[in-house]
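Reply to dn_fold:

You asked what the input looked like. This is it:
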Amino acid sequence: MCNLYRMTKNASEVAAWFDAVEGAGGANFAAEVYPGYTGLVVAEGAVRPMTWGFPLVLKGKQGQPLKPKPVNNARSDKLATFFWRHSFEQRRCLIPLTAWAEAQGAKGRMTRTWLSRPDAPLFAAAGVWRRSDEWGDCYAMVMTDSEGTDAASVHERMPVLLAPDDQARWLAGSPQEALGVCRGWTGALTIERTGEPWAKSVVPPPPAQPGLFQA
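and this is what came back:
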């Protein structure tokens, strides 16, 4: 699963790359995007800022609602379930990124391993989005099995990376056509294993409480 990705291009660069309209008002987002943070997506032909993660409202021991947590990953084999179905059928998007990270190593000493495409400085992962009362527009990244790909040496799952020819099928195809592009990326990937701690000691507070959730 993916709980951190890097996006180092600005909204104008993203709009030009994906032949989309740059949304009005600009967007403030960090180069490293965590669950609950703001990221850029391409939805309905425009580059738009949204919160990464669908809000999951839990209840405390006394039945009181707790602060929502972001469900930031959607497994491709779960897209027909209640939590994702309407967004998958009606609101698919592209998530621009330049790399994504996975945690590797012993518990408490995990480090970041970055994965990217060597042939593209910017690429797209499949996403779904919806409007929420808690955070406004929000999105989730679609994950699939990494077996048979370069990413399998790092994690059993990976984002659904979309080649240019598959992007239109994901955005505008039928649900069956969209599911057809939900497969592991068989092209080359650059894998950068670092000594960088997975959990940094100083991280700017996000607009929503981060969580490591996958539905």
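The mean pLDDT is 90.
Hope that clears it up.
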